[in-house]
Design goal:
The complex is a heterodimer of chains A (about 120) and B (about 400). Chain A is of the alpha+beta class. Chain A has helices spanning about 1-15, 55-70, 75, 85, 100-119, and strands at about 25-30, 35-40, 45-50. The longest helix of chain B is centred in the N-terminal third of the chain and has 21 residues, at about 60-80. Classes of the chains: A alpha+beta (about 120), B alpha/beta (about 400).
């Protein structure tokens, strides 16, 4: 439960995204909680904006963004997110559709690939 | 005397800890756990009797066939069907409903109406949508009321001479509402409509007498009643089963096969193409014996007492909203809190060893009705006890302190 205290705290700290990003186009469908995500490239580095309707998912999103924001596209394209297992969150790496996190990691890689292709 | 502790001891899976806490299993509406006698029956089948059914004339095949058909007899008696051949083995409720919906493609056309309810899970919704698409029939819906019951006035208005088929659940998996099967069936029959009742939850949590209810079809999934997954039944009145064309073609379902044309086997085999899920049927037989030994009345009285206790304890939690508040409810408590996502609550309950279902329960139209993303659902079975309820309540309180 301590880990979840931490994740929830992370979720509460993540700045709420503008309602404008919460469109169907930006929706990463999970089975239960929704995640919206967009990305932009500034000076060769990728920055994400994301939000979720569930607080635990928001916390996981915050953890992911903290690691991924400001990285070059080629690094994101190859990201493996093994750190989630290192901090005891292996269950979130399983291909369950419950929180949409798998889809989100895939989306981060796809953004990396897309921005890489622009270079 | 109902000895719930002795019953729990018969379920090996309940003797474990999850996240360091003794498991509290309250996801019984999704699937129930299996008593040792059911597990043993499956092991015994493979260790001693495994063989294909209905074909070989050797001893093993005879034993396997006897066990396979004995279960059909138990199910016939449990549901009080008029004939054994009115019990068709299917893959489950979903398989049974698809069998009927597929058969109706050739019986319906434009101008005909199929009536379902807003209270259905997707298994009793999507097959009818597909039927409507294929046949040109119109799909109509009985709406629900705020307490989670069907709007019976509206149902009576919607049932009309164009109604050819009425399909609804006996018990709602999402809310626990018990529907008035007999009343709706009588109304539908008065206009000559066929009635299918989805008993995925119903068979496990109410006594079912298909002849007294008068339904034309009744479906069930074995795994929701202490039996293995992958097996279920379609009960159908003989006249309807004769009228419906076969669903799938293959072995077991034919009488004669030539290069030109095949003739079909008599009931029930007409609808049982291919090698069936024999071990699951054998396990189901053991599960029916287990339920009989326990006594359906004792089981239902136990669940009813737990529902009263659980409702009282849950509704005492500040801010908790209970969805489904009809007087007649079975084994399901569906709830939520404003501004708390069911996924968050479900995750934190799991972290405390409490297994519940969170989400839409495959019944999106109901969630749309209440304008919510989903609920948390605690559901009971024969082995559920007061301690399960108390642990649930404590876990909810702890989770809500974290989320607020």
């Amino acid at each position: 439960m301590d880990r979840y205290e931490h994740i929830i705290a992370q979720g509460k700290e993540l700045p709420a995204a503008q309602e404008a990003i919460k469109t169907d186009d930006n929706l990463i469908r999970g089975c239960q909680s929704k995640v919206w995500m967009t990305a932009e490239k500034r000076e060769g580095l990728v920055y994400f904006t994301a939000d979720s309707d569930a607080i635990i998912t928001r916390g996981l999103v915050a953890l992911l963004l903290r690691v991924c924001n400001g990285l070059p596209p080629e690094v994101l394209a190859q990201a493996n997110f093994g750190f989630l297992a290192d901090i005891g969150l292996t269950e979130h790496l399983s291909p369950t559709r419950a929180n949409g996190l798998q889809s989100m990691m895939k989306q981060i890689r796809l953004y990396g690939l897309a921005f890489q292709a622009q270079n | 005397m109902y000895n719930v502790e002795a019953i729990r001891a018969e379920f090996p899976i309940l003797q474990q800890t999850v996240h360091g806490r003794p498991l509290v299993y309250l996801d019984n509406a999704a699937t129930t756990q299996k008593p040792r006698s059911v597990i043993q029956a499956i092991v015994n089948h493979y260790e001693n009797n495994n063989s294909n059914v209905h074909r070989g004339n050797h001893t093993l095949s005879q034993r396997a066939t006897d066990a396979f058909e004995a279960t059909r007899g138990k199910l016939q008696r449990h549901l009080n069907a008029a004939f054994e051949h009115e019990i068709i083995y299917t893959t489950g409720t979903t398989g049974a409903i698809n069998l009927v919906a597929h058969g109706f493609r050739s019986l319906l056309g434009p101008g005909d109406e199929v009536l379902v309810s807003q209270l259905e899970h997707h298994s009793n919704l999507v097959p009818w949508q597909m039927l409507a698409q294929h046949s040109g029939a119109t799909l109509r819906y009985i709406p629900i009321l705020p307490d989670g019951s069907l709007d019976l006035d509206e149902a009576q208005r919607l049932i009309n001479p164009k109604t050819k088929l009425l399909a609804f659940n006996h018990i709602s998996n999402a809310l626990g509402t018990v529907n008035p099967v007999k009343q709706l069936t009588d109304w539908a029959h008065a206009v000559g409509a066929c009635v299918l009742v989805d008993g995925a939850q119903g068979m496990a949590h109410r006594r079912v007498d298909v002849q007294a209810l008068g339904v034309d079809f009744y479906t069930a999934s074995a795994h929701k009643m202490y039996a293995p997954t992958g097996i279920g039944l379609l009960y159908g009145k003989t006249e309807w089963l004769e009228k419906l064309p076969p669903y799938q073609g293959g072995g077991e379902m034919i009488a004669t096969v030539t290069m030109g044309l095949s003739t079909y086997a008599p009931l029930p085999f007409k609808f049982e193409a291919g090698t069936p899920n024999i071990e699951a049927v054998v396990g189901w037989g053991a599960a029916m014996d287990w339920v009989s030994a326990l006594g359906m009345d004792a089981l239902l009285a136990h669940e009813s007492e737990l529902m009263a206790y659980g409702t009282e304890q849950l509704t005492a939690i500040e801010g908790l909203v209970l969805f489904g508040t009809t007087a007649d409810k079975a084994a399901v408590l569906s709830f939520g809190f404003a501004n708390v996502h069911p996924y968050d609550l479900g995750t934190l309950l799991d972290q405390q060893g409490v297994a519940v279902r969170s989400g839409q329960h495959c019944a999106q139209p109901i969630m749309d009705y209440y304008r919510i993303t989903g609920t948390v659902r605690a559901s009971f079975a024969a082995y559920s006890n007061h301690d399960d309820v108390d642990r649930l309540i404590a876990a909810i309180n702890r989770a809500m302190r974290m989320l607020n």
